[in-house]
Amino acid sequence: MHISQEEMAKALIPLAWRDYCAHLVPELNKCRVGTYYVPWACDKERIAWEKCQYDDYQRRMKILTKQKRAEELGASQKLSSELDS
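Predicted structure:
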């Protein structure tokens, strides 16, 4: 994360949006307010935020997959050691 808790509070970022990509939200919100929420006006900022969200999702899924594999490997090794006894 590239933004502090104080900066997020000052920018009025809701708690639900305070994630890995929170550093992109103030710029996006500033653009939205400045253009009266015109859908096509802030494409660059919105796309950057959405890409960050997607990349974060992929990163978390890789970690989860590795954890599941490690658990499965540990369970299979435990089962094989019990069978050997």
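Summary: Residues 51 and 79 are 42 Å apart (CA to CA).
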